[in-house]
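Reopening this one. Same input as before:
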Amino acid sequence: MPPNDPDRDRARTARGEELASLLHHQSPDVLVSLLDNPALDETQLCLLLNRKDIPAEILEEVARRKPLLKNYRVKRALAFHPAAGSENHPGAPRNSARCWGAPRGRPYSSAFHRPG
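Same output, byte for byte:
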């Protein structure tokens, strides 16, 4: 997109209904610009994160911005997004058993089993 795209500029300053309509925009550049909008609140950010068609780069950008992660609902929406669990996403765990503490090479069910 051109650097002075009107939709990107609108995304940085939009309020109310205009902001709500931009949450459904298809352009990743516009969606990243929305993250810079001071009027974007937790509810609207969660609506954006609930989109199943959101590009992974938007999820990564939200994860990089510490002020956006202050709220539990935002963290949860980010963590449970379908793209966050895909193998194409850089932060996705490769083996869920290892996330829960199972040693490498042993199946989860036997990781905490004591013989005898």
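So the earlier flakiness isn't reproducible anymore. For the record, Helices lie at 6-13, 16-22, 28-35, 42-49, 56-64, 72-79, 96-99, 108-111.
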